[in-house]
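Changelog-adjacent note: as of this version, every example in the card shows the full chain rather than a window. The one below runs 196 residues end to end.
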Amino acid sequence: MSTIKKVVNIAKKKLGRSVNEAKDWIRQEIKKLTEGEITLTEGFINDCISEFTQNHSVELHDGCLVYSGENLIPVAKKIEVTCAYDSCDFRNDTKAIIIKLLDLKPFYLKPALLALPIKFPFIKTSKNAEDTRLVTCHLNEIPSLKDNKILNSPFMKYLTIEYLKCEEGKVTIKLGRAGTLEDVINDAVAIVSKQE
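Full-length structure tokens:
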């Protein structure tokens, strides 16, 4: 049973058998999720990275993020990528985050970007109308995320990132609803109705 189904069932049990009461509870929970902002500090992000790999770091600046890695490939001791958030697409079967590549050092690695999709099939490269290189990461195509319950939730299509703002030392994320609240509630009720 999915997490969403469990939450809806708990709500129904706590609130009695009233579907209207369950709908109101879902409305409140969604409002809590999309009301505020999530702020992550540079230190927190680097602590998370260091749990998985060494010699990698992130610096957060106004409007961009700088990723640095050492000893990643033989032809470059150090790589530095400056990027910014572009957009996201969580519709239906697509779960993608699109990032603008602002700079890559050393410069001679730029052609290597074309090889990224070969090594990592969940990554696609393209250019926007201003000729800025875009890197799209299809989260739902990453093998280690295949069974991720949050990513595969039927309700993910109703979530979007309204903005992702990089500032000196921190990044702020504002989540929003991509669909109507009634669509979310109707999907939740349909899931529960199928169980009964």
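Structural remarks: The chain has a mean pLDDT of 80.
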